[in-house]
Amino acid sequence: MTAAQPLHAVLGSGPAGTALARELVRRGHPVRLVDRSGSGPALEGVERYAADVATPEGARAAVAGGAVVYHCVNVGYHLQVEVMPKIQEAVLAAAEAEGARLVVLDTLYPYGETRGAVMTEDSPWNATTRKGRMRAELDARYLAAHREGRLPVVLGRSADFVGPGVLNSTLGGAVFPAALTGQPVPALGDIDLPHSYTYIEDVAAGLATLGEHPDADGRVWHLPTAPARTTREILAIVEQRTGRPIDLTVVAEPRPFGPFDETFMAEYAEMFYQHTEPQILDSSAIEKVYGLTATPLETALDATLAWYGEFLAARP
What we know:
This protein is α/β, with parallel strands linked by helices. The protein is built from ten helices and 13 strands. Helix 1 crosses helix 6 and helix 2 (about 55-65) crosses helix 3 (about 80-100). The longest helix is centred in the first third of the chain and has 19 residues, at about 80-100. The model has no long low-confidence stretch (mean pLDDT about 95). This is NAD-dependent epimerase/dehydratase.
C-alpha cells in the first residue's frame, strides 16, 4: 500500500459490509472485507479475508495495516446481548493498537420508544429493552474511547435496511419474494404509521463518507434516509411495480408467521414497539454537511424488486 492509498478494512460481509466494500472500491480505496469464512463471490478490487473478530487475535489480524476500520458486524438476535460487547472489546483494542480510525454501523435502538417523535442526533437515549440498553452502552463506550484519545471513532446510525441483498429485514426476504409470487406478504404492527427505511446503497455511501472525513469523528450521524412512508404506502408501490395484487397478512403482535419463526419472534418481541409507533428518522445533518442525498424510496424499491427477481430465478 502507498501512503496515498491507505487500506480500508470492512468487518462483516452482510448486505451493509458488502455494499460498503463496493462503494469504497468505487471511490478508489484498497479494501479488505472480513468475515469468519473469507469466502463468497469475488468482488473486484476487494480482498476477502477470514477472521473471527470476536477474538482479540482475530480482530488484530483483520485490521492489520488498516487506516480506517468499519465495524459492520452483526449476529443473530438471540446472541446479540452476549456477543456484541465481546466484538466491541476486541475491535476497539485492535483498531487502537493499529492506530486506525473506527467507523461503526449503528442502529436506532438506543433511542428506545419515541412516541412518534422525529429522531435526530440530539434525541435522548431512552432505551428500556435488553437489546436497546446493550446498544446504548456500546455506543457510550465507543464515544468515551474517542473522548479519552484512545482512537478516533464515529458512529453512523441507520433505520431498517431495504435494498438488493437485504434478506433479514422487515422489508426484505419475507416481503419481496412473496409479493413477486403471489404468496401472503406479512406486514408488522400498525401499517398506517410512517416508518423509515434506509436504502442499503445509502448506508454504504454514508459510511464511506464518514470514513473519508476525520472531521466527522467523535459523534453520531444518521445515515442518508428517504422521508418516512407508511407500510401501506410502501406495499402499494410494490403492488403497482409488480402489477400483482398483494395478499397482505397483518401481524399485529409479535407471533410467529412465515419466515418470522418462534425463536426470532421471542427475541424480537421487546423491539416490536418499532411497529406500533411512528419510526421517523431525520438524516438532514449528514446530507447538509457532506452533500449526500438519500435515494428516493421508489428508486430503492425498483432496485430491490429487480434483485429479488434475479434471486428467485437463480433458485432451484
